[in-house]
Specification:
Chitobiase, domain 2, binds acetamide
Length: about 675
C-alpha cells in the first residue's frame, strides 16, 4: 500500500522539468520582452480601469479577464472594485471594427512595475491579447500571487492564425466550442474555421432549406440563434468565425434532403454518404439552390471570408454520369478538374454577389479563378508556394493536422515560410497570410476533443504569432507544460477528461496502475486507425477505449527519453540521471502485477493486457542493462539479441497504442554491449 501511494508522487517529482527562472511562461512568445526585477502583487484589492476607447465588448472582455484571474489565483475579487487605485490601467486609442477584419492592428504594449501595470493598444483587439499575456504571467510567489516586472511590446507575425474544428463527423455542442474559443484566445489565435458540413452531417439550421439540417443530421445541429451568440462570443475574444460548407465533394449530407443536387441520383442518407458523393455542377438548379443558400449563410456569418471546401473530388460520380460527361464535352473541357474549376467560378460569382471572399482547399487552385481567392494548403507546402507565385493568397495547414497524433515538436518545426515557400520573393511571401491547425473529427467526441487539440495547438499558435526565430524545442516544451495547466484553469478539459475516462473504463476509484500505463502510451499515428478500420467508420460507435482517452503525446515518455539521452551522453556517469531512470523502470516493471486484476475485470481494458505485460518486460530489460553498465561488464551478445527481439515485438501496436518508452530502453540495451565509461 505504501509503495502504491509513493510511486506516482515520486514519478511526478522525477519528471518535473526544472523551469529556468529567467524564462517567462508565455506562449506565444511576444516579439519583444524586457524583464526587470521585482513583481506586482495580485491581491483581493486588484482592479482594472479603462481610459480611452471603450465599448460593451471591451467591458465583457474585462469581466471575463477578472473571472479568469480568479481561476488563476483562487481570489474572489470584489464585484465593485476600488476604481481610485486600479492595479491595471487599460487604454485603447480607438474602437474596433464591428466585424473583425483580416489584418486589423492586434498589437499591444504591457508595462508592469512593482506599483502597477499599464496595457495600451491601438484598438481593443490588442487589449484582448494583452490581457491574455497578463494572465499567463500570473504565478504564485513567496509573498502571494504576482506578475513579474516586465515590458512587453507585441504583435503577430501573421494576420491569420486559425483552428479548424470539424463538427460534421462528430457533432460538438456549442458549450464545448465556446471553451475552445477561450483556449484559442489564450494563445492569441484569431480565426475559428468551422467545418460545418460533410458527408456525415449538416450542422447548421437553414430556414431556406430546412431539409439540410432536418434530414442531413441526426438532429444534432446549431440553431441560427446559437450561431449568432457564438459569433458574438468569438468577437469578444478577437476571433473571426469562418464557416466552411464543403462542396462539390464531401457533400453527402446535403443529398439526404435534396437528392436532386447529387451527380448520382438515388437515395442518400447523412451517413455514410461515401467519398464519391458529389454535387452536380452541370445543372442550373444547383446554382439557383446555392445562390439562395449562400445568401442565407452570408447573412448569418458576417465575416468577409467564406470557405467552400473543394477538396477530394474524386470524380467517380461525374465519370459515371453520361449527362455530365456530355456537358464536359460540349463546353470544351478536358477533364473533371476543368469541371470543378467551372463550378468554382460559378460559386465565386455567387460569393461576390454576397460580398464574400472565397477560401478553398488547395485543389481549387486553377488559373481561371480570380486572384482574390484564398488557397488553403493541406496536401503539402508546395501548393502554398505555387499559389503565392501565381498571385494568390494562401494559408498553411499541411503540418498542422492535429488528428495525425504527432508530437508538438513536429508541428512546431513546420513554418509557413519554410520548405517551398523559402524561395519566394518578398511580394510572393506577403501573400502568405498564416495558417490553421486542423481538428478533423473522425475519432473525436465532445469528451475527448480538448485533449486532441490542447495543449498541442498552442505550439501552432506560437508558430503563427511569434518571430520566426522562436524555435527552441526545450523552451517550447517547458512553457507548454505551464500553458497546459493554465488552459485547464480556463475551463478546458484536456487533462481531466483522461482521468474521467480511465475511471469509467476501470469502474473503480483506484486507478494508479492504470494511469502509469496510460501515461506511457500514444495512439497509433497518421491515419493508421482509419486505414485499418475495415469498411466505413461507424460514427455512432462509442469512443471509449484506452486509445480514445490517452494523450496524443506522452509527456512521461518524452521526459524519460531526455533522461536516457542525458545518461548516455554523460558516458553513463550521471548518477542522478541513472537513479531516476531506475526508479521509473522499477515502477514500470512492477506495474503489471498491480494492474492485471483491474484489466481482467473490464471489457474495455482487456485489450491492454499485452501492453501492460510488455511494459513490465521492457522495463526489466532496461534494469538489467543498467546492472551491466554499473559493473562495466558488457552484456552477453546472446542476451542482447534476446532483449532486442523482445523490444522489437513491444514496439508494435497493441490495442491501437504504441508503448513510447521502448526506443529509449533499446538505447540502454544496446549501450550495455559496450559499457566502458568514458
Ligand atoms: C482535407 O483534409 N481533405 C482538407
Amino acid at each position: 500500500m505504501r509503495n502504491l501511494l509513493l510511486v506516482p508522487a515520486l514519478l511526478l517529482g522525477l519528471l518535473a522539468t526544472a523551469q529556468p527562472q529567467s524564462q517567462l511562461n508565455l506562449m506565444p512568445t511576444p516579439s519583444s520582452v524586457q524583464t526587470g526585477t521585482g513583481q506586482l502583487l495580485i491581491d483581493r484589492s486588484f482592479s482594472v480601469a479603462v481610459t480611452g476607447s471603450h465599448d460593451a465588448s471591451l467591458d465583457r472582455g474585462i469581466q471575463s479577464f477578472m473571472a479568469q484571474l480568479s481561476a488563476e489565483t483562487g481570489i474572489l475579487f470584489r464585484s465593485k472594485p476600488d476604481a481610485a487605485k486600479p492595479a491595471l490601467t487599460i487604454h485603447a486609442d480607438h474602437g474596433r471594427q464591428q466585424i473583425q477584419k483580416l489584418g486589423e492592428d492586434e498589437s499591444y504594449e504591457l508595462t508592469i512595475t512593482a506599483s502597477g501595470a499599464a496595457l495600451t493598444a491601438p484598438t481593443p483587439l490588442g487589449v484582448v491579447h494583452g490581457l491574455q499575456t497578463f494572465l499567463q504571467l500570473v504565478q504564485a510567489s513567496t509573498n502571494g500571487f504576482a506578475v513579474p516586472v516586465v515590458t512587453i511590446k507585441d504583435q503577430p507575425r501573421f494576420p491569420w492564425r486559425g483552428l479548424l474544428i470539424d463538427v460534421s463527423r462528430h457533432f460538438i455542442p456549442i458549450d464545448v466550442m465556446k471553451r475552445n474559443l477561450d483556449g484559442m484566445a489564450a494563445v492569441k489565435m484569431n480565426v475559428l474555421h468551422w467545418h460545418l458540413s460533410d458527408d456525415q452531417g449538416f450542422r447548421v439550421e437553414s430556414r431556406q432549406f430546412p431539409k439540410l439540417h432536418g434530414m442531413g443530421s441526426e438532429g444534432l445541429y446549431y440553431t441560427q440563434d446559437q450561431i449568432r451568440d457564438f459569433i458574438s462570443y468569438a468577437h469578444d475574444r478577437g476571433i473571426r468565425v469562418i464557416p466552411e460548407f464543403d462542396m462539390p465533394g464531401h457533400s453527402g449530407s446535403w443529398f439526404a434532403g435534396y437528392p436532386e443536387l447529387a451527380s448520382n441520383p438515388g437515395t442518400y442518407n447523412f451517413e455514410p454518404g461515401g467519398p464519391d458523393s458529389v454535387t452536380d455542377p452541370t445543372q442550373e438548379a444547383t446554382y439557383k439552390f446555392l445562390d439562395k443558400f449562400i445568401g442565407e449563410m452570408a447573412k448569418l456569418f458576417p465575416d468577409a471570408y467564406f470557405h467552400i471546401g473543394g477538396d477530394e473530388v474524386n470524380g467517380k460520380h461525374w465519370d459515371a454520369n453520361p449527362k455530365i460527361q456530355a456537358f464536359i464535352h460540349a463546353h470544351g473541357m478536358k477533364n473533371n478538374q476543368d469541371l470543378q474549376a467551372y463550378f468554382n467560378q460559378r460559386l465565386q460569382k455567387i460569393l461576390t454577389k454576397y460580398h464574400k471572399t472565397m477560401v478553398g482547399w488547395d485543389e481549387i487552385l486553377h488559373p481561371d479563378l480570380p486572384k482574390t481567392i484564398v488557397v488553403q494548403s493541406w496536401r503539402g507546402q508546395e501548393s502554398l508556394a505555387a499559389a503565392a507565385r501565381q498571385g494568390y493568397s494562401g494559408l498553411l495547414s499541411f503540418g498542422y493536422y492535429l488528428d495525425l497524433m504527432w508530437p508538438a515538436a513536429r508541428h512546431y518545426a513546420v513554418d509557413p515560410m519554410s520548405g517551398a515557400a523559402s524561395s519566394l520573393g518578398p511580394e510572393e511571401k506577403s501573400r502568405i497570410l498564416g495558417g490553421e491547425a486542423c481538428m478533423w473529427a473522425e475519432w473525436i467526441t465532445p469528451e475527448n476533443i480538448d485533449s486532441h487539440i490542447w495543449p498541442r495547438n498552442a505550439v501552432v499558435a506560437e508558430r503563427l504569432w511569434s518571430p520566426q526565430e522562436t524555435k527552441d524545442v526545450d523552451s517550447m516544451y517547458a512553457r507548454l507544460d505551464a500553458v497546459s495547466l493554465h488552459l485547464e484553469r480556463l475551463g478546458l478539459t484536456h487533462r481531466s477528461a483522461k482521468l474521467h475516462m480511465l475511471h469509467r473504463m476501470a469502474g473503480t476509484a483506484e486507478i494508479t496502475a492504470l494511469r502509469l500505463l496510460a501515461d506511457v502510451v500514444e495512439p497509433i499515428k497518421d491515419y493508421t486507425r482509419w486505414d485499418d478500420s475495415k469498411g466505413p467508420i461507424d460514427f455512432h460507435a462509442p469512443l471509449n477505449r484506452l486509445i480514445d482517452a490517452v494523450y496524443p503525446e506522452s509527456d512521461v515518455a518524452r521526459r524519460f527519453r531526455d533522461l536516457v539521452q542525458k545518461y548516455v551522453q554523460s558516458g553513463f556517469k550521471d548518477q542522478a540521471a541513472e537513479t531516476q531512470i531506475k526508479t521509473l523502470l522499477v515502477a514500470w516493471r512492477d506495474n503489471d502485477a498491480k494492474l492485471k486484476p483491474l484489466l481482467g475485470q473490464s471489457f474495455l481494458l482487456q485489450e491492454a493486457v499485452p501492453l501492460s505485460e510488455n511494459l513490465a518486460a521492457v522495463a526489466g530489460a532496461g534494469l538489467q542493462s543498467l546492472d551491466y553498465l554499473d559493473i562495466s561488464q558488457p552484456s552477453p551478445d546472446s542476451w542482447r539479441t534476446q532483449q532486442l527481439t523482445l523490444l522489437d515485438q513491444a514496439k508494435t501496436r497493441k490495442a491501437d497504442l504504441l508503448l513510447m518508452v521502448v526506443a529509449p530502453i533499446q538505447q540502454l540495451v544496446e549501450a550495455s554491449g559496450n559499457p566502458k565509461k568514458r
